[in-house]
């Protein structure tokens, strides 16, 4: 209720708060993001009356809901800096908005009295935009050696990201050991894969993938410790060979000789119908005065697969058959059957007609049409497919039964297809 305003008095104001709650969604960190969702509404201001009255005013409302994701280089998840007293060592830290909505970042080293600082402390990033922040280490004490956490908070409700900062004071005339505790050199271990991703794997089964590690050192061997960590680390294991035995472990140690390749086998065993995430940590083993560089390879996999069957057709030993009767040259004949997905994961299906079973010559669409010829089939769902066959005029319809054409159905995982398309066509 708004009180009346009288002449000679200040007008009364009523403040109305409009709150927007974005819908809750569970999205895996490896899942491809579409565009942010747009929500539109309107507030009408009317006089409360038993009789219909026109709106006094209207206020348009618009909101956007999306996912905030901040990416930083994998080799800078821990920043090592060396500096002499009262001088500064600096490290650029690129931050990229890999989400689908604008983000405001608050970037700080929260502890008081730290020798670390960061600039800028506030940042605004549009989707796909990248900006560098500068991390500085300025020791005041010649014995300064500290470790801090750089916190990157996405306003207003998170998430929060953390980067480990390590700094050490050195004398002005000294040189750091190579590759010393705060060395910023690139890792001397190379990998042929930046990540490992599994498509749909049936529950109760396993699937193996391999990656190759190579040492870029020309003279010394590299001793590595491999460890699987993460929220779903129990679903991923390292496969090691001990003599004639193969064992599954969550960690192992390997030695990579100069210019030598070492094959690492990672096994994925899904436990549920969802995306599972972990990471393979690879750390160089050194003595305590020379801690090695650690880097990670993301692991992701999905439990469940699609499985397509045809219904309403005659099943042969290695294929299906449908019969089209009463063929008349130039006139359409139709046959309808169903494609069912009995699996636990959505499939993308595409149908293509060929003249024969060798898949060498596509059939003229004037002769054979398929509706729909491509579609997404969710788990436990079916799709009716219509085949329209129009015999060419030169065909002799008095012939005995013969093979008219072959329709091939190509099926694949829909989520993997979407991820592949996003890589091929980045925004």
UniProtKB/TrEMBL annotation:
GO terms for molecular function: protein kinase binding. Residues 1-68, 71-168, 310-423 form the Cep192-like domain. One of its GO terms (biological process) is mitotic spindle assembly. Pfam families: Cep192_D2 (PF22064), Cep192_D3 (PF22067), Cep192_D4 (PF22073), Cep192_D5 (PF22074). Signal peptide: none annotated. This is Centrosomal protein 192. One of its GO terms (cellular component) is cytoplasm. Residues 187-304 form the Cep192/Spd-2-like domain. It comes from the Eukaryota.
